[in-house]
């Protein structure tokens, strides 16, 4: 599924709308790219924006579609040059004719929609505001100013459309990286098909430089892949035979074969794209607040403008209706909160895009706000702060190390247990010999013969069972041990442990600098959990927990007033992720249930991205509040000047459009931030 054109597109109903709750459901460009300016579906105040999907062609399409606006601007420019530069006094009829033509070209759809909405009882919207202001200018004979108000209003909307279109395309270009065709091997012959025609279990061929189209398992011995689009990690990743390769990765060295393990629609990339699409519909509290205020703000503005026109008649001795009507119109023009209602969602959309470029999927603007309020990160251990892969950390033996590893690994190669696999992985696979008379003793380990020698490999209980003595200090080791005896004599041990992720300690330290404490919860034994917590600098940890225990602890923390983000990867973490204020999932190795439940997904499984998500949320929130302060400050100042007769319609429209453009540019800054 492609990223839909509905993703965070802009409509004029974003400004001063009396139906803010509907915006999240109906906003956007329809598939024929017509620009709907109303939530009502039986009419269309639209601009044909052309195709927004391909680089600058989208901007060109928008600009070309506004040819009537450009013609209107040209007519106004000619009139102003003749009148104020050439000092040619045009006949009144010629002036009125030129201005009416320019006005109809620029504002015909805005005026039509204003009347259409008014006929349905919806008077308090920007279309009615602009129509009243410009009609009032015509009434008092200020034709050029009335036309200018409409032209610059439409130019402001044009810049907003371009800004939103570019923001939408930046995320779409970043994530929509699935190829249109894939080479599938059928009857040992390569066949070009669309990705959704490939079935689970089939093998696909990915050539050097091509993108993987579907999730699968490496059949070739190994391959080097660029995973930046999925994870934000520029360093190439080596994927060995049997390991997972995901849609969106790019083979950068050679052709590889991959066995498909998920349908096209079920690939992680497809689901990421769906989540990004849904994210733009989830409004942040700041956006919802502005929408609620619009219900009160817009009618209040109309009332104040009316009072500016009417009240002075009771107190001003030389009251002039046209003069006060002009002031009321200035007040109306500058009062339109378009800068707020477009720059705020644009700011949050920029934050979502910045997060995506850093390997973080934020499922909604509201979660960018939530993450800034977090004071405690509760984290799972295995697969979150550690790699979730058993690995030999230490080998102690009284015989030659190579012989010890070869004998033990030969016996362990019989087992599929993760601990046994760790022992085998540590040895030279080419040196292994086939074990004989292998017997698996449940809960203890393996017994067999290797090179004619009787070998035991398992836990200390296995040696106890066979009355073989071993060093007493082994009992004090908290990690998993594989103890080995050869010919009824203790020979040594393998210390097996989960490996801590390279950036886990950095992640904890960065969170601490942000004023966020970290707590670790795990189902692993308490001694192991405590050891890992100590290495990472985590002050509070709990081990031996069941999923319901994690839920209980997080609920207790919330009852204490803590704002919790829970980070996990396993399916057993889904309930507690749902409970937390912000649920964060490790996306590369995480279970589907956990990723679906989470509010934020770390696509490269790096714990340090948690702090990055917090920083992105803070940057976004800062820019949004800057825009609110800028827009409201300038508007209040010019409204006061307009009501006092100091500001003209020209100044009002320049202030309105100027503030909107500054707010848009400020929102754009988010996308260029380095985290």
TrEMBL record:
It is an enzyme of class 7 (translocase). It holds the Pfam family E1-E2_ATPase. Residues 26-36 have a biased composition (Basic residues). Keywords: ATP-binding, Cell membrane, Membrane, Metal-binding, Nucleotide-binding, Translocase, Transmembrane, Transmembrane helix. It is found in: Cell membrane; Membrane. The keyword Chloroplast does not apply. Its EC number is 7.2.2.12. Its main location: membrane. Residues 178-277 form the P-type ATPase A domain. It catalyses: Zn(2+)(in) + ATP + H2O = Zn(2+)(out) + ADP + phosphate + H(+). Residues 1-25, 37-55 have a biased composition (Basic and acidic residues). Belongs to the cation transport ATPase (P-type) (TC 3.A.3) family. Type IB subfamily. NCBIfam families: ATPase-IB2_Cd, ATPase-IB_hvy, ATPase_P-type. This is P-type Zn(2+) transporter.
């Amino acid at each position: 599924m492609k990223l839909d054109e509905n993703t965070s597109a802009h409509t004029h109903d974003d400004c001063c709308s009396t139906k803010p709750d509907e915006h999240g459901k109906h906003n956007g460009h329809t598939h024929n790219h017509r620009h709907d300016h109303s939530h009502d579906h039986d009419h269309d105040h639209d601009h044909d924006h052309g195709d927004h999907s391909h680089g600058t062609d989208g901007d060109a399409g928008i600009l070309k579609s506004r040819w009537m606006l450009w013609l209107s601007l040209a007519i106004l420019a000619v009139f102003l040059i003749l009148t104020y530069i050439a000092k040619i006094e045009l006949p009144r009829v010629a002036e009125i004719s030129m201005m009416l033509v320019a006005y109809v070209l620029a504002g015909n759809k805005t005026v039509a929609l204003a009347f259409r909405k008014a006929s349905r009882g919806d008077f308090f919207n920007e279309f009615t505001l602009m129509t009243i202001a410009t009609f009032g200018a015509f009434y008092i004979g200020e034709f050029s100013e009335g036309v200018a108000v409409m032209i610059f209003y439409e130019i402001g909307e044009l810049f907003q459309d371009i800004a939103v279109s570019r923001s939408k395309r930046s995320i779409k270009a970043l994530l929509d990286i699935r190829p249109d065709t894939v080479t599938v091997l059928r009857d040992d012959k390569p066949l070009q098909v669309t990705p959704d025609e490939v079935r689970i279990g089939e093998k696909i061929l990915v050539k050097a430089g091509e993108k993987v189209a579907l999730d699968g398992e490496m059949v070739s011995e190994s391959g080097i892949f660029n995973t930046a689009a999925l994870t934000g990690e520029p360093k190439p990743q080596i994927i060995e035979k049997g390991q997972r390769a995901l849609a969106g990765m790019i083979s950068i060295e050679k052709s590889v074969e991959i066995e498909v393990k998920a349908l096209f629609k079920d690939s992680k990339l497809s689901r990421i794209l769906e989540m990004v699409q849904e994210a733009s519909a989830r409004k942040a509290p700041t956006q919802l607040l502005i929408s609620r205020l619009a219900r009160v703000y817009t009618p209040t503005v109309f009332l104040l403008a009316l009072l500016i026109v009417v009240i002075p008649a009771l107190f001003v001795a030389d009251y002039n209706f046209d003069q006060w009507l002009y002031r009321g119109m200035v007040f109306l023009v500058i009062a339109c909160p378009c800068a707020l209602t477009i720059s705020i969602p644009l700011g949050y959309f920029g934050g979502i895009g910045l997060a995506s470029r850093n390997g973080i999927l934020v499922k909604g603007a509201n979660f960018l706000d939530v993450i800034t309020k977090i004071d405690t990160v509760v984290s799972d251990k295995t697969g979150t702060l550690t790699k979730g892969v058993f690995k030999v950390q230490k080998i102690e033996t009284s015989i030659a190390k190579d012989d010890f590893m070869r004998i033990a690994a030969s016996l362990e190669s019989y087992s599929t247990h993760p601990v046994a696999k760790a022992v085998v992985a540590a040895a030279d696979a080419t040196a292994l010999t086939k074990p004989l008379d292998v017997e698996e003793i449940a809960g203890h380990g393996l017994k067999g013969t290797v090179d004619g020698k009787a070998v035991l490999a398992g836990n200390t209980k296995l040696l106890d069972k066979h009355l073989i003595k071993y060093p007493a200090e082994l009992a004090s080791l908290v990690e998993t041990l594989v103890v080995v005896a050869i010919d009824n004599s203790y020979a040594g041990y393998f210390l097996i442990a989960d490996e801590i992720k390279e950036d886990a300690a950095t992640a904890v330290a960065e969170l601490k600098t942000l004023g966020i404490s970290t707590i670790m919860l795990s189902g692993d034994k308490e001694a192991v959990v405590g050891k890992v917590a100590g290495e990472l600098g985590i002050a509070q940890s709990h081990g031996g927990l069941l999923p319901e225990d994690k839920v209980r602890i997080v609920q207790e923390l919330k009852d204490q007033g803590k704002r919790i983000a829970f980070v996990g990867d396993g399916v057993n973490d889904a309930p507690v992720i749902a409970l937390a204020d912000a649920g964060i999932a490790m996306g590369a190795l995480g279970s589907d249930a956990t990723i679906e439940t989470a509010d934020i997904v770390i696509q490269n499984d790096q714990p340090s991205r948690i702090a990055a998500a917090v920083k992105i949320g803070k940057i976004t929130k800062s820019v949004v509040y800057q825009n609110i302060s800028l827009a409201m400050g300038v508007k209040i100042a010019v409204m006061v000047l307009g009501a006092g007769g100091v500001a003209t319609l020209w100044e009002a429209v320049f202030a309105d459009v100027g503030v909107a453009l500054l707010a848009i540019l400020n929102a754009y800054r988010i996308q260029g931030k380095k985290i």
